[in-house]
Sequence to fold (356 residues):
Amino acid sequence: MTALGDHLKRLIRQNGPISIATFMAEALAHAEHGYYTSRDPLGAKGDFVTAPEVSQIFGELIGVWLIDAWERQGAPEKIILCELGPGRGTLMADILRAGRVRPNFLNAAQVHFVEVSPALRARQEAALGGSHKATWHTTLTSVPSDRLSFFVANEFFDALPIRQFIRGESKWHERNIGLDNDRLIFGVTRDGVPEELVPPSLRQAPTGSLVETRTAADAIVSDIAARLTSGGAALLIDYGYERHAVGDTFQAMKAHAFTDPLLEPGEADLTAHVDFEALAAAAQNAGTSVFGPATQAGFLTALGINLRAERLAAANPTKADAIQKDVERLTSPLQMGSLFKVLALLPQGAQRPPGF
Ligand code: SAH
Fold:
């Protein structure tokens, strides 16, 4: 067992079974042995590849979208440009490169990163290459809110802790993780939990149904939305459901293959589908207009991914095939095109933005 596995077992022996949320939070973000805190997991040699790592066009188009939103709001002279879960910093570097066509945008943008991982903070600093100074935060709470803010997050919410509830004969129960001798195993609470923990539209689901919720994500989206009441924008990209849905989507990835989430805690990435209906509701309740979710393919195509790919291929003829392949990876419904979705938050009354 891993060092983190031993820590979790001690926790369970002392206090009894832990929720999936506690397991996920510890496995991913434990200060010493957490999956993210202790490594850079991205890329071909790592455990998974994300859209910004597939193609520079992804970040460039997001940059163009953000610049457009900034211009529509009168191109304010000082803004906060905040990315949550920036990974290797590739997305932000591509956004800032796209921003070179609008030097005023680059001058206006004060970059803030919300990142738990010291290993990845170092990568992010290197990715910006000294061209832009950034400020790091462990949570969104400490990011300043004294000027208009523009947010972006790609594959951030899927890593935030979920809870799982299972419909019993007469009550909902919470799925948890306990010990069978020395082995981590899934279980369920014997007592029922309040049905208010489950979205209303799913409360009548048949016996045996499993429902996932993510309070931490809803709270972060509320906080983002509250910062957008007088201007700014947020673009949230992730994989998941357009509407609340039943089903177990808790998964572990290691070296680009699925693995048992309980086998090597701290050594595999843990994620679950994002419930975009829940994120949209949190944003609406906090007073913003919500657009989407659009599929990643729909969003990128509307923003001109094909034209940009043609131009890039014309400038790099030997890479034309690779560029086309990367575009397909981002947009094909069989790959990232429809499972991945994009949600935009804008101040109330804002016009429909490009891509939606
Ligand atoms: N956006 C990047 C990386 C996605 S991986 C990309 O698309 O390539 C998830 C990112 O979120 C990593 O940078 C990870 O360290 C960070 N992260 C995960 N859980 C976090 C948390 N609870 N708080 C802040 N950052 C977190």
About this structure: Residues 28-29, 36, 42, 50, 52-53, 85-87, 91, 114-117, 120, 154-156, 159-160 surround S-adenosyl-L-homocysteine (CB under 6 Å). The chain has a mean pLDDT of 96. The chain has twelve helices and 16 strands.
